[in-house]
UniProtKB/TrEMBL annotation:
Signal peptide: 1-19
Origin superkingdom: Bacteria
Keyword Signal on entry: yes
Protein name: DUF6089 domain-containing protein
Keyword field contains Signal: yes
Coiled-coil positions: none
Keywords linked to the UniProt accession: Signal
UniProt organism field: Winogradskyella arenosi
Limits of the DUF6089 domain: 5-228
Length: 229
């Protein structure tokens, strides 16, 4: 986390860096989990999420991007369409901190130094590291804390649309899925091997979570020269 924060602060501080343009701003929206507990709807945000975002626009078609996102992951069996989950009536909730870094590609050139309306769809992917508290469901169905936390690596897959709304501000709406390499986010698989017998659900499928929301960024830096990219 220390190196990630240093990277973000460095991007903000280098306003006069050689011939590039930068963005910093906020992320806000909602999250929902697709796992072994709760509803299985793909786009059904049920918890608020907020974070910060930084970009280095390497060319008019691609940017390096990093972000920090805070949210609470929650799943409620009673909100599922599956009769078996409704009858089971489990519920989980865990705090989440997501660190993400990767590359954003635009469908068309997004050169902010030319006049007129600027807007384009974009794709973003890279890697995420998600910190969450560890829980499990006891033999009588009680949601119980293990008193530990874990980091889950994942792959973000995001589709969005962004547009310039003022001289130096960009507004974007995006929908992103995070595939994690963990099955522990929803408490269906305990972190401790001593509680392995309490695992349930499809242990061959890892957990996913979704983010749906907006970003608002402020752009700065000297007029770039993209001729070398």
């Amino acid at each position: 986390m220390k190196y990630f924060i240093l990277f973000l602060l460095g991007a903000i501080a280098t306003r006069n860096a050689h011939a590039q343009i930068y963005e910093v701003g906020i992320i806000a929206g909602g999250t929902n989990v697709i796992g072994d507990v709760g509803a299985t709807d793909y786009i059904a945000p049920n918890q608020f999420a907020i974070g910060i975002l930084g970009k280095w626009n390497r060319s008019a078609r691609h940017s390096f991007r990093a972000s920090i996102l805070f949210s609470d992951l929650k799943g409620v069996d009673a909100e599922s369409d599956d009769p078996r989950r409704i009858a089971r009536d489990y519920e989980f909730s865990t705090d989440m901190l997501e660190l993400s870094a990767g590359m954003e590609f635009t469908f068309v050139e997004f050169d902010l130094h030319t006049p007129g309306f600027k807007g384009t769809p974009y794709l973003y992917s890279g890697i995420t590291i998600t910190n969450h508290d560890n829980y499990y469901f006891s033999s009588n169905g009680t949601y119980t804390s293990e008193g530990t936390s874990s980091w889950a690596f994942g792959i973000p897959m995001t589709l969005g649309y962004k547009a310039r709304i003022a001289n130096q501000f960009i507004l974007a709406a995006e929908l992103g899925a995070r595939y994690t390499f963990s099955d522990e986010l929803d408490g269906s698989v305990p972190d401790s091997e001593d509680r392995e017998t309490l695992s349930f659900g499809n242990t061959n499928n890892n957990d996913w979570y979704m983010f749906s929301g907006i970003t608002l960024t402020y752009t700065f830096g000297r007029r770039p020269c993209y001729c070398n990219f």
